[in-house]
Amino acid sequence: MQRPHVVVVKLGTSVLTGGTDKLDKAHMVELVRQCCELKKQGYQVVLVSSGAVAAGREQLITPCGRSLIEKQMLAAIGQGHLIHTWQSLFALYGINVGQMLLTRADVEDRERYLNARDTLNALLAHNVVPIINENDAVATTEIKVGDNDNLSALVAILANAEKLLLLTDQEGLFTGDPRSDVNATLINEVSHINDELRELAGGSGTSLGTGGMATKLQAADIARRAGVEVIIAKGAGKNVILNCMADKLPGTRFLKLTAPKDGRKKWLLAGPKSSGQLVIDDGASLALQERGASLLAKGVRAVRGQFERGDVIEVISSEGQCIAKGLVNFNHQEIDTIKGCHSSQIAQLLVFAPSSEVIHRDDMILL
Ligand SMILES: Nc1ncnc2c1ncn2[C@@H]1O[C@H](COP(=O)(O)OP(=O)(O)O)[C@@H](O)[C@H]1O
Ligand SMILES: N[C@@H](CCC(=O)OP(=O)(O)O)C(=O)O
What we know:
Layout: E1 6-11, H1 13-17, H2 25-40, E2 44-49, H3 52-59, H4 68-91, E3 97-102, H5 105-108, H6 110-125, E4 129-134, H7 148-158, E5 163-168, E6 189-190, H8 195-200, H9 212-225, E7 229-234, H10 240-245, E8 252-254, H11 263-269, E9 276-280, H12 282-291, E10 300-304, E11 312-316, E12 322-327, H13 332-338, H14 346-349, E13 364-366
Parallel strand pairs: 1-2, 1-5, 2-4, 3-4, 5-7, 6-8, 9-11
Antiparallel strand pairs: 7-8, 9-10, 11-12, 12-13
Helix pairs in contact: 2-4, 3-4, 7-9
The site of adenosine-5'-diphosphate has 26 residues, from helix 1 and helix 9.
């Protein structure tokens, strides 16, 4: 039997509060109704819900500021209220929800990534709606994803989703921030994400949201590489979720790319941080990009950073562009010794030669 298609719906603070300082429960009911309708149509639904900080602020009697620790405290207060609200609304439809609070550390480590994936799949298999947020109360800057747009892209990869809906307070990505640029127009479809497009996407225009369109574009770029179609749309719109699924909206659609089939390559896309970089020559760039070759020592020109065998490394072209990412077979000192050499010389140059490739093709994704 074919597995039902999974849709990840990311709800920003702007949608959940309607731009106010309280959760907009009336609108949350409406969003839940649409999620349950999608489930009736045979989809599995995952929510990435922001709003913990806003819900915490709503509860607090004495007002507090916006420092990191204050936001962490607010998230600790608000997350319980947020999940309780979702729980009671989905219960109206007889549907259970399951809370998963993640951080970047949960996807960086392959074992933890697989654990999170298994839990998510188990919830879906039992007809439960997973509701995911960052574990803000404990996440330090080093282990934080930092915004729920990027988190939702990682979740879409974990859930092997078909679509990711990024619902926010604008109709989509405009040619400029519509809050400040009255001439900005909506971009309906995006097939390439380049620097020109990134320049159009600014930060959040309010004190409620995190990241604005810039992080939505980052998320769209990650998700579409994993074969997920991404739509940015206005969360306040009538029937927004159902309309997104029926292609009936004003919104910005990001066309998906062909995803790597291999699970480990998908994990590489989900964003383990790289520990270093290898700068390669033009011949090696061509071999990687055009011929699907592995990276050999001969094509490596420089080593940046300190890393161990098995770490994730970025591959940089002579023009300074990151063109690939992969698991490296040697540590930084070993590559420094063998760079520029023929693979047959590795055994003489190193005491231990674990491999003839610096990064094997099967352990690499092109960017
Ligand atoms: N090019 C753009 N198109 C649309 N919105 C933009 C653009 N650049 C910046 N923004 C801002 O991004 C905001 C949405 O992001 P954000 O505030 O983080 O909301 P959310 O809580 O939904 O994540 C908009 O309110 C808008 O001010
Ligand atoms: N994790 C935070 C939200 C972080 C975030 O990315 O917010 P938003 O830009 O409103 O989606 C919270 O629950 O308040």
